[in-house]
Amino acid sequence: MSTGPYPTLMSPIKVGHTVLRNRVIMGGMHTRVEFAENAGERLAGFYGARARGGVGLIITGGYSPNAAGGYDADGPFLMTKDQAADLEQVTEVVHAAGAKICLQISHTGRSARHEGLVAPSEIRSPISRFTPRALSHDDIIQTIDDFANCARLARNAGFDGVEIIGSGGYLLSEFTTRRANIRDDIWGGSVENRHRLPVEIVRRIRAEQGAGFLITYRIGAADLVEDGQTGAEIDQLAAALTGAGVDLFTGYVGWHESRIPTVAYPVPRAAFTYAINRLKRGLSVPVAACNRINTPQVADDILSRGEADMVYMSRPFLADADFVAKARDGRADAINTCIACNQLCLDHIMTDREAGCLVNPAAARETQFDETPAARPRKIAVIGGGPAGLSCATTAAARGHDVTLFEAADHIGGQINLACHVPGKTEYNELLRYYRTRLDTTGVTLRTGRTADAETIAGQGFDAVVVASGSLPRQPSLPGLAGDARVVMYDDLLAGRVTAGPRVAIMGMGGIGFDVAKFLLIPGELATDPEAFQSYYGLDTSVQQAGGLLETPVPAQGPHHQVTMLQRKPGRPGASLGVSTGWIGRSTLQQYGVDMLTGVTYSHLDAAGLHIEQGEKTAVVALDTLVICTGQDPHPVAVQSGLPVHLIGGARSAAELDAARAIDEGYRLGLQL
Ligand code: NAP
Ligand code: SF4
């Protein structure tokens, strides 16, 4: 047992014949870096940094063992010696840093995004455009060969083992359920038949690779879909897989087609540990907990309570390569915490872009940025302590510049402070904590309560000025709006400077319009209290029912406000929201009775309410409060000091500005200065 901070998390563990230096697994993630021209080099940079950062076991992003199983038509695949050779530099750099690494074998089955997809039966996934071809018996035998070949190639490339994906609605989990498997041959029907393919794959790999090769299996601990597995079936599968040679079960909950959020910010931390703990109780091999575990304290608590043997975290390692080293060395307050926004990771993957990270612009781009000290340290003024200014100031200071950060408010964070009030977005507090620590450790001089202008800057010996003074809410010009006490701006409402009456109209359905609706309607504990979340979504925490779902979800609590949301654009409400998170907010708000009107023309506001036209119809939206969420305009402070001036973030351009762009612009400028 380790004697430092987080002793359980940091203690070594024997898995199969392999000893891991601690109980932290960096979980597999799609990054699409595998498609880059210099993929091997970039992946070595990415995984090498996490290995040097202290993680015990790394699982790569998924590689398909054959053409049908790729998430996309072009892979990523591990089918040939050439493909394996490119990965040798990855395993070398990881081993040199003392970590172990498994290659993830991922056959996506009917969840694949290409026309050549296959499945146990010809049943289309509700979230897919394509109907899969049902595998023949011979195809299944070939698939087992393909998994074995992939494991062989991985071993030759230096991997310590493989992780086989048996969850999420990918091929192997499809075989286990009647939802996707209605075969009547030896691969379907009885529970044993439905389990046959995953068990045969594990048996074959173990037979070929011997005892020293790590086999981890990503098992669905609760499918969260109708006709998913029952707990008893999951236990039977796990026992059969253990007998076939699995060394470690890494948990997972939900299928991608489930209508229950499992990883995004509306999910409380560790909300699904119940399913992992239930599974672990009947098993002789270690089990890793997963889903919304993003701090060392949450991870250590799970292990200390005996709910799991290891912890599987993926996105937290995009956010901070040094997560483990910082936790181990008592510097947990310096961890750049994953806020579960999905904005640059999952949302990018789902829209064919490389993954990145909102809070860490260098994630998966380790070889592209040069963070070495500045050749000529200079004295720099940064105006504005929002995300752009914080990112720039701390990056520049870390490179040796003498940085002073001016912030007009008495605290840092800018609009991040507003986000913290939105249900589910309390994780943004971690970003503020991270920057407070980083300002300290990089030696930035912080001047709060100071509106910096040309006069403040003059005569202080600055060599350059960075203007990161942000944006201001846009006030539309509409007859009746000006001077009406019912009209409030979103920032005043979110900051608690004003309150809303019972009937609320929200003008603007961008990210902030939705945030305001959530603020008004959704109880905060839904995203922070696992029991409230489990009850709202009707989760069967005993996992006795198929899919781990109760037949009748507990109804939502009544709303305190009657809310109408409006926008001028026609089409789907909230179309600009993140693809992996927008649906959660939309469906929850609809459940709370929100009326969403699109294709609206605003006419005027009077005592009766907001007059609108929608197509041929005219209507009046009666209201007590009209919240303006119609975007922002840049708010650059004027600094005519004769010094070089750099504009970043909302001060440069407010269109589609979010925290991701602000932090990225700040980081890039911080490296250039
Ligand atoms: P936004 O996304 O640009 O939305 C502004 C809304 O106001 C739109 O619905 C727009 O729709 C309407 N609008 C714009 N100008 C108007 C005018 N003159 N009169 C009436 N309506 C007008 O801006 P935002 O909601 O302020 O968000 C700012 C940024 O933060 C965006 O990039 C957003 O993606 C990001 N953000 C993201 C999240 C998230 O959860 N991912 C949350 C908050 C903010 P019409 O023009 O069709 O009426
Ligand atoms: Fe976490 Fe958001 Fe970064 Fe993804 S983009 S790793 S969810 S902070």
Poorly predicted tracts of residues = none
Round the mean pLDDT to the nearest integer and report it.
96
- CATH homologous group name of the largest domain: Aldolase class I
Termini separation: 45 Å
Largest sheet: 8 strands, parallel, barrel
Side by side, the strands of the main sheet go 3-4-5-8-9-10-11-12
CATH classification, class level of the largest domain: Alpha Beta
Q: Proportion of β residues? A: 15-25%
Number of strands: 27
CATH architecture of the largest domain: Alpha-Beta Barrel
What does this structure look like?
This protein has 673 residues and is an alpha/beta fold. Helix content is 31%, strand content 18%. The protein folds into 3 domains: 13-350, Aldolase class I (TIM Barrel, Alpha-Beta Barrel); 379-472 and 634-672, NAD(P)-binding Rossmann-like Domain (Rossmann fold), CATH 3.40.50; 475-630, FAD/NAD(P)-binding domain (3-Layer(bba) Sandwich). The strands form 7 sheets. The protein has an 8-stranded parallel beta barrel, surrounded by 7 helices. α10 links the parallel β11 and β12 (310-313). α2 (39-52) runs parallel beside α4 (88-96). It is globular. The chain starts with 6 loop residues before the first helix and ends with a helix. The model has no long low-confidence stretch (mean pLDDT 96). The structure holds NADP nicotinamide-adenine-dinucleotide phosphate and iron/sulfur cluster. Residues 315, 318-319, 338-345, 357-359 line the site of iron/sulfur cluster (SF4).
Summarize the structure.
By secondary structure, this protein is of the alpha/beta class.
